[in-house]
Amino acid sequence: MLPSIFGESLFDDWMEFPFRDFGADVDRKLYGKHAARVMKTDLKEHDDGYELKVDLPGFKKDQIELQLQNGYLTISAAKGLEEEGKDKKGKIVHQERYTGSMTRSFYIGENVSEEDIKAKFEDGVLTLDFPKEKPVAIPERKTIQIQG
After folding, report:
1. Nearest residue to 55 via CA among 36, 68, 72
2. What does the alpha-carbon distance between residue 108 and residue 70 come to, in Å, rounded to a whole number?
3. CA 144 from chain center: how many Å?
4. pTM greater than 0.85
5. Are 68 and 128 in contact (CB under 8 A)?
6. pLDDT tens track of the chain, all 148 residues?
7. Residue 49 is assigned to a structural domain of this protein
8. Among 20, 60, 116, 142, which residue's Cβ finds the most Cβ atoms within 10 Å?
9. Structural domain of 75
10. Domains identified in the chain, total number
11. Position 108 in a domain
């Protein structure tokens, strides 16, 4: 058993097989080996609706896009890196931040419209409030009288 700190092996970088993740999802490049921990989500139910909180650390409001189509709410985030490494007095020795994009979708119901969704982005957390989907009314069954 390998020693670990905060759920990670101390030897991850030294003992990683170079082709282990060959062909892995492009989203992994955005946060490296920590990609699985990105866009963590909490969903809270209220009497009249839901509150969805999504962690998007390091993103700005204009780098996030929300779309609603066929009852699916899709959250997309994309970013690039600033040119911090191009100063005249140094060079980048080690870099763990990358450019890239990520997307996650949630089914919230076909009867929810864009106007029903309230979005707020603060301190790297996207908060969405939306109502519960209203059930579609099923018409009453009426009996048909048979004559004759």
Report:
1. 36
2. 9
3. 52
4. no
5. no
6. 545 445 555 545 544 444 444 334 444 555 555 555 568 999 999 999 999 999 998 889 999 999 999 999 999 998 876 655 455 577 778 777 667 788 899 999 888 989 999 999 999 999 999 998 776 667 777 777 787 6
7. yes
8. 116
9. 41-80+95-132
10. 1
11. yes
Residue 75: the pLDDT is: 94
DSSP assignment string, 63-123: GEEEEEETTEEEEEEEE----GGG-TT---S------EEEEEEEE--TT--GGG-EEEEET
**Which one, of 107, 115, 120, 125, lies nearest residue 40 by Cα?**
125
**Which residues have C-beta within 8 Å of that of residue 109, sequence separation ≥ 6?**
71, 132, 133
> In this structure, is residue 31 part of a structural domain?
no
Tokens standing for residue 78: 């994309």
What are 16's two structure tokens?
């990683």
**What CATH number is attached to the domain comprising 74?**
2.60.40.790
Q: Is 25 helix (H, G, I), strand (E, B) or coil?
A: coil
* Cβ(130)–Cβ(71) below 8 Å: no
Q: What is the pLDDT of residue 4?
A: 47
The position carrying tokens 């089914």 is 107
Each residue of 92-103: b (16+ CB within 10 Å) or e? eeeeeeeebebe
